[in-house]
Design goal:
single chain, about 550 residues, alpha+beta, 3 domains, five-stranded mixed sheet, 13 helices, 12 strands
């Protein structure tokens, strides 16, 4: 098709095109334009960044050895200026900041099932990438919902038409690694790598590896690269929205209430025994959202999830420092790490600390009363623990709360199966703190005395990501990027893949379409053994010292 002048109609200006089909007679086609700009839905070729007024035409595809090729363009500018590339003689080739896939005859949009325009191929997520933005958005949502890096990588390859059989385990460069840049139009194809494990004394150890493990080694770097490069972009929008919600609730006179919990992850020895010295911890912060007035008790939503080498007061203070908000009330179990972080991080007047009644009942049954709950006095202990409820008369006043503990000790002294030292520790941790909070809790029945809803959040969102692969995570930065994606998923910011793709596109365009290098987050490995930053407590302490909270 070639342009053949314009003419005026009552509806506006129409550009005439002459079509020379492969079969049949030539004919003309009219396309409406208005004010020199194409009507909505009739997008033309992109503008040359060096010559905005030049004539731009398609100049063939590139990068199509494996997967979908991308479109290259030719700029015809007869009057060369100093801004041209060296050697320009009136024309040169270029690619837009964010290239698009080459459109073949008969290509359809996956969403609307309409024929694509010749310049409207799938927009790639960044320069030097072959991944469409919507494919990346789908993979981010999959991993936030619990899919592994390997599964996301395999699905990405299938979505762009790259046969998984062509992705080798060892190669010169990974498929998503940054490539040399001889020209903006080049985008060479590469293959996934899997470094050879370190060996001692130069002797390779042979071990039996399942087919699923071999397959995951081929694809996991693609999913991990998506998390590293694009999860921070999505998280920045979600975090800003959550922060604005908190400010709006405070401006409306609503209390900022946090519910905290921690999940210890233990390493496992070869025999299957749990090993506490080589594990890490997941720290969870949820916030009560009061913005929906139809729900008087508010809704519980994830605010921040962080993986830390150890569950200590320093780890919790790093979490509090990252959120950057001083809450009005904190509800959690009275663990040593949380209590110490609450006392050291917040200045007077500190947020009101409410020890969780649910955690108190669980702690008593598992520790001090473990043996007694199976003895002859178990019914008496169970009836006494059942009084730990929001509307119980035990919580009518600090005096009634004190009498409940006295009655529990009386039952314990009559039973030889109770560990009085553990029972005394629980009383010291819970009684005084809850007695101090009771006047505020009695004045507002909507405030919570337990973290039971938080346990459901952990089960539905966090445990899906950790299930059967919690021991695989080793890089602290990439792991926490994945935790951020999980919060984005729970907040509903990954439901619309087109919105996620546009968000990533808006972030890349100011930088000429370039994204951060993939697979740039890597722990340096020693010659012998293995280093994992997620297990390095010294790194956590160093960050705390840098922020002035150590």
């Amino acid at each position: 098709m070639v342009a053949n002048g314009t003419y005026r109609q009552a509806s506006g200006t129409v550009r005439r095109y002459k079509c020379f089909p492969l079969t049949g007679d030539p004919h003309t086609v009219g396309v409406g334009i208005e004010g020199g700009r194409r009507l909505h839905g009739q997008q033309g070729a992109p503008t040359c960044p060096l010559h905005p007024g030049s004539h731009v035409t398609r100049h063939g595809p590139y990068g199509g050895t494996v997967g979908a090729p991308r479109q290259r363009y030719r700029c015809d500018h007869t009057r060369c200026t100093s801004a041209c590339r060296s050697g320009c003689k009136g024309f040169h080739t270029f690619t837009p900041p964010l290239p698009r896939h080459h459109v073949k005859p008969g290509d359809q949009c996956d969403d609307c099932l309409e024929l694509r325009g010749i310049h409207r191929g799938e927009l790639v997520v960044a320069r030097r990438h072959r991944w469409p933005g919507r494919v990346v958005a789908d993979r981010l949502a999959e991993m936030a919902a619990g899919a592994s890096y390997a599964r996301a990588g395999r699905n990405a390859l299938q979505a762009v038409g790259i046969p998984t059989s062509q992705v080798r385990r060892r190669s010169a460069t990974p498929i998503d690694a940054p490539q040399p840049d001889p020209s903006p139009a080049e985008d060479s194809v590469s293959r996934v790598t899997d470094p050879t494990p370190a060996t001692e004394a130069g002797v390779k150890k042979k071990r039996r590896v399942s087919a699923a493990t071999r397959q995951s080694h081929r694809f996991w770097q693609i999913g991990a690269g998506f998390v590293e490069a694009f999860a921070p972009i999505v998280w920045a929008k979600t975090e800003a929205r959550l922060r604005a919600r908190t400010e709006a609730m405070r401006a409306a006179g609503r209390r900022i209430v946090w519910l905290l919990d921690e999940i210890p992850i233990y390493a496992r020895e070869p025999g299957g025994k749990r090993k506490k010295t080589d594990g890490y911890g997941i720290l969870v912060v949820t916030e009560i959202d009061w913005t929906d007035t139809a729900i008087p008790d508010g809704t519980l939503s994830l605010r921040l999830v962080r993986a830390m080498p150890k569950i200590t007061s320093i780890a919790w203070r790093l979490v509090f420092d990252e959120i950057g908000v001083i809450p009005d009330m904190i509800v959690s179990d009275a663990s040593t790490a949380i209590v110490a972080a609450h006392e050291r991080h917040f200045a007077e007047p500190r947020p009101l600390f409410v020890p969780s009644l649910w955690h108190l009942g669980q702690a008593l049954q598992k520790n001090a009363l473990a043996a007694a709950m199976h003895g002859p006095a178990r019914d008496a202990f169970r009836a006494h623990l059942a009084l730990l409820a929001r509307d119980s008369p035990v919580l009518a006043s600090p005096e009634a709360w004190h009498h409940w503990w006295d009655a529990l000790f009386a039952l314990a002294e009559a039973s030889e199966a109770v560990r009085l030292d553990n029972l005394l520790t629980s009383r010291l941790n819970y009684e005084g703190r809850l007695a101090e909070a009771l006047p505020t809790l009695l004045a507002d029945p909507r405030l919570r005395l337990s973290t039971g809803g938080l346990e459901g959040k952990i089960r539905d969102a966090i445990e899906r990501v950790l299930r059967n692969r919690e021991h695989v995570f080793g890089n602290i930065e990439r792991t926490n990027n994945l935790m951020d994606l999980m919060v984005c998923q729970e907040a509903g910011d990954l439901l619309d893949r087109n919105a996620v793709a546009r968000l990533i596109e808006a972030d890349e365009r100011p930088h000429g379409g370039w994204a951060v290098p993939l697979r740039a987050i890597a722990d340096p490995q020693p010659r012998k053994g293995r280093y994992r930053s997620l297990r390095d407590e010294a790194q956590m302490v160093a960050v705390a010292a840098e922020r002035g909270i150590w």
